[in-house]
């Protein structure tokens, strides 16, 4: 059994702040970052925003509280994007903040669009990609950046 919460979508700046706050929690076991498909697919929804902003950056936060089952926080939908300024600066801020955190990973495989799924099913889709989870560090950062945008300076 697990508890799943889908984060409320706010402004991208508030979305960034919310995810950065989880970096400070001692009970976070891992944060996994994902890049969505670059084009709409059979699962994309209007809630995912304009396809001009694809791929999107999504995240799954996994926490453990003493004596409980895992808790997952799903960050999907129009969460963050690096396809244009000033949104790219928010993604850069996130990546700068996580670069030295041993609990942060990324998926080397793109995630399909999940907004139409209930949060519990979305978590299952995220976790299906676990064979592709890779620690996000200085050596792997360029791989993840290239999945998000071709405009890195």
Distance between the termini: 43 Å
The number of distinct structural domains comes to: 1
Q: Give the topology string: H per helix, E per strand.
A: EHEEEHEHEH
Number of helical elements: 4
User: Strand sequence of the main sheet, in spatial order?
Assistant: 1-4-3-2-5-6
How would you characterize the overall build of this protein?
This protein is an alpha/beta fold and 153 residues long. The chain has a single domain, classed as 3-Layer(aba) Sandwich (hypothetical protein tt1805). Helices cover 27% and strands 25% of the residues. It contains four helices and six strands, in the order E-H-E-E-E-H-E-H-E-H. It has helices at residues 12-22, 87-98, 119-128, 141-148; strands spanning 3-6, 28-35, 56-63, 71-81, 104-107, 133-135. It has a six-stranded mixed beta sheet with strand order 1-4-3-2-5-6, sandwiched between helices. A hairpin with a 7-residue loop joins strand 3 and strand 4 (71-81). It starts with a strand and ends in a 5-residue tail after the last helix. The model has no long low-confidence stretch (mean pLDDT 92).
Characteristic terms for this protein:
alpha/beta, 25% strand, 153 residues, single chain, six-stranded mixed β-sheet, hypothetical protein tt1805
Q: Layout of helices and strands, plus pairs?
A:
Elements: E1 3-6, H1 12-22, E2 28-35, E3 56-63, E4 71-81, H2 87-98, E5 104-107, H3 119-128, E6 133-135, H4 141-148
Parallel strand pairs: 1-4, 2-5
Antiparallel strand pairs: 2-3, 3-4, 5-6
Helix pairs in contact: 1-2
